[in-house]
Amino acid sequence: MGAEATDVPMTADPARELVRTYFPGARSENESRLRGEIDATLDHWFRWRSGRFDDSARVGEPPVADAPAHQDDRLGSRLLALCDALTAETPTFSPRYIAHMKADLSLPGLLGWFAAMLHNPNNSSRDASRVGSVIETEAVAALAGMLGYDPARAQGHFTSGGTVANFEAVWRARYRLDHWLALALHDSETTGETLDPFAAAHMGWERFRSLRAAHAVSDDRLKSCSAAASNPGDGWRRISRASGRDYRGPVMLVPGNRHYSWSKSANLFGLGGEAIWSVALDAGGRLDLADLERQVDRAETDGRPILMAVAVAGATETGAVDPLDRIYDRMDQWRAERGWRIWRHVDAAYGGFLRAMLDGPSEAALTPETAAALRAMGRSDSITIDPHKLGYVPYACGAFLTPDAERYAVSAFDAPYLDRPELGEGKWSSTLEGSRSAAGAAATWLTAETLGFGSDGLGSILAVTIEARQAFETAVSEAVPEARFLPADSNIACFALARPGEGLGRSNARTGAVFDHFQRSPHFAVSRTTLGVDNAALIANVLARHGGHDDRPGGGGEMLVIRCVFMNPYWSEPSVRQELLPRFIEELREALAGLNATEAA
Ligand SMILES: *Cc1c(COP(=O)(O)O)cnc(C)c1O
Fold first, then answer.
1. pLDDT at position 6, please?
2. Which ranges of the chain have pLDDT less than 70?
3. Does residue 496 sit in helix, strand or coil?
4. Which of 83, 178, 352, 528 could form an SS bridge with 348, CB 3.0 to 4.6 Å?
5. Residue among 193, 181, 196, 191 nearest 214 (CA)
């Protein structure tokens, strides 16, 4: 094994301390601490309950065990049955589990969640959540600061996950685009001037306000011009008439490394699958800026407004981070030269917390390109982040954020076209979900208060997860020459098993068989993924390094890779690396030896 695999990098020591303090421990080393804190939380809760309302009638004395009247009380036994059944769950707390974006929960995550769950506030309104909703506001501000928004101005809320947070972004982008286009349609219908749907849909609020004031357009009139607020069919027909060409609706530019929630969003918002325009990826599996430029040109030529341009920070399959800095430089230029305000959304469901590594020693674990991309995240109009991934808090906990109230605005169903100050009373009218738990917000809040979202807190833990991925890559590629790693920006390692000069078909078969071996093995859990046509440049890049080739007639071959997610915090322990890296390599060699035996037979 290479020296890099066992060397403990500079940033590891404080991070190891944090992992030892704030996680249950791979072998439950912090059991008594967690029990103590849960007990203290329950004590507090019971004191609070029993101290209230002295005059309330009692519900009855607690049941006595074995008393005949309570023979039907099956709670204890069935609870144990439930606990028993749950032991068949995957042991994702273990560093041997590197399959998916799931690992042990942190103590602040568990305890914050538990404390709020006991009170069960409903964050849909201040009435139903006097404290939980305040905690949510504070947790949103903590996330905002980490993500590069001004915490004093940023808006947002917690969602069930990244999928719904992405939908929240589409909902708001549509609200904005629909306003701008509706006003331009009104303008064109009254003046007779030809409508340019592309330019109109990106006009900006400043122009919207001055145009609206100049024409004194009433709410009712604006609403009657809106495809979203009136009849979509009529709306599109009128846009076609006013523009002198068939209007085919807006498009969404989403890179090929997108999560499947984006296809769901096109379906859900009635855009049609065709409206998702896939932006090509470069040889590193990141959004290709030149292709984004081509797609924007095409949208303009075709008269299709851009509902939003999505970039991904931490792709679900590979962990790749799109070049946000270069993308937003280009979009700033369009804005300055053409006046186009195109909604910029960052899907940072996985990689948002990597931003905690910036501006401190932890940043050294990122390439300069990835650091520059993450640094530009605050230049977006909205962000999705999943505390239930790299925030180590329990499901279901995602969050949606915007830099200010203007971009948070959305059609409230009661008064869709009124400018409203952001409601003090609650979020119910501006969230897709109705009732919302405060538990995820409290878990995130307690994490911010303890571990912290800085480079010396969560950032340093994420830095060691990246170093663990690097150590893994170094050790495996030295020991197993067939292992061909994809370029990696974060803590996800993907590799194919290919021999020099080989066709894709053969190496896919080998990679698939090795994955099957791991599926049968109790020692490690890995996942697999297939790089498809969107990743043609990345596949060509990997093939070129070992002289492989695409043997599919006509090209367009897919590449199967084994995927290992190194988010488990216990990989920060040198003893874990020293023990598990050689075990993994042994397992991989066994799998390959088994195949060679079959091939030879
Ligand atoms: C996980 C993920 C999502 C979806 O989040 P859920 O919490 O599973 O709904 C969206 N985008 C990316 C990039 C993700 O990694």
1. 46
2. 1-12, 55-57, 59-71, 412-425, 600-601
3. strand
4. 352
5. 191
pLDDT tens digits, one per residue of 433-467: 999 999 999 999 999 999 999 999 999 999 999 99
**pTM of this prediction exceeds 0.70:** yes
pLDDT in tens, 198-216: 999 999 999 999 999 999 9
| Binding site membership of 317 for ligand 1 (Cβ less than 6 Å) | no
Q: Is the shortest distance between the CB of 349 and ligand 1 below 6 Å?
A: yes
Q: State in Å: Cα 92 to ligand 1 middle.
A: 18
Q: Whose C-alpha lies nearest to ligand 1, atom 15? A: 316
The first and second tokens of residue 127, run together, are 């009435």
Residue 159 Cβ inside 6 Å of ligand 1? The answer reads no
Give 4-72 as a DSSP string.
Answer: HHH---TTHHHHHHHHHHHS--TT-TTHHHHHHHHHHHHHHHHHHHHTS-TTSPP--PPPPTT-GGGTT
| Residue that has been written with the tokens 């830099």 in this structure | 403
Mutate which of 101, 163, 287, 400 for ligand 1 pocket (most atoms within 8 A of beta carbon)? 163
The pLDDT value recorded for residue 4 is: 44
The answer to whether the peptide bond before residue 396 is cis (omega within 30 degrees of 0) is yes
**Surface-to-core class of residue 372, CB atoms within 10 Å of its CB (0-12 exposed, 13-18 middle, 19+ buried):** middle
Between β-strands 483-485 and 492-497, what pairing exists: parallel, antiparallel or unpaired?
Answer: antiparallel
**What's the count of helices (H) and strands (E) in the chain, helices before strands?**
21, 11
What would the two tokens of residue 313 be? 């920070």
Ligand 1 atom 4: residue of nearest CA: 162
Beta-sheet pairing, 276-279 with 251-255: parallel
Distance CA 453, CA 458 (A): 5
**3 state SS of 343:** coil
> How close is the Cα of 448 to the center of ligand 1, in Å?
21
162 lines ligand 1 (CB under 6 A): yes
User: 508-537: per-residue pLDDT in tens?
Assistant: 999 999 999 999 999 999 999 999 999 999
Residue 456 identity: D
Residue 367 tokens read as 């390439």
| Positions of E strands within 286-380 | 306-312, 344-348
Q: Kindly give, in sequence order, each residue whose CB lies less than 8 Å from that of residue 528, ignoring residues fewer than 6 positions away.
A: 511, 512, 515, 560, 561, 562, 563
Could you tell me where the DSSP H helices lie in 355-456?
368-375, 405-408, 439-449
Q: Amino acid letter at 531?
A: L
Residue whose structure tokens are 């920060």: 572
* Centre of ligand 1 from the C-alpha of residue 315, in Å: 9
The answer to whether the CB of 163 is under 6 A from ligand 1 is: yes
User: What is the 306 CA–ligand 1 centroid distance (Å)?
Assistant: 22
Residue at token pair 């903590």: 142
Phi-psi region of 303 (alpha: psi -120 to 50; beta: other; left: phi over 0): left
**Crossing angle (nearest 10°) for helices 458-479 and 574-600:** 30
The answer to whether the beta carbons of residues 356 and 457 sit under 8 Å apart is yes
Tokens for 501, please give them.
Answer: 């000069």
Q: Is any atom of ligand 1 closer than 6 Å to the C-beta of 313?
A: no
pLDDT at 599: 73
